[in-house]
Amino acid sequence: MKEKSIDSSLLDRAILFAVKAHADTERKGKGFPYIVHPLEAMAIVATMTNDQELLAAAVLHDTIEDTDTTMEQLCAEFGPRVAKLVETETDQHFSADKALTWHQRKQESLNRLASASRDAMIVALGDKLSNMRGIAQDYAALGDELWQRFNVKAKADHAWRFRQLAEVLKPLGETFAYQEFRKLVEQVFGEENG
Question: What is the mean pLDDT of residues 6-27?
Answer without folding.
Answer: 93
